[in-house]
Predict the structure.
Amino acid sequence: MRFTEMKAKLEEKIKALEEERRTLLEESDKLKEVLELSEKAKTLEAEVNKLKEEIKSLRDKIPEDILEELSKTVPKILESKPEKEEGEECCQEERNFSKPFNA
């Protein structure tokens, strides 16, 4: 009878360990995905900031009189933002990952 009890306890322990292993693997996969998205967002954010600085620098190099003339002939082209394209709303969820979780 002792053999049967030991066998049942070991089978129970194995089942519990397999369940814990499955849960840990799921959590690991989810955390890896979040880390990957976070790194992508960080890279994109740095790229956007670099482009903004480049644009500001380029605008600062353009003589004021030319900027004034451009603003008269092509109104708002230097300040305006492009209108949202159709389907752009689908990307809103990705933008929510642009900030680190512990910031």
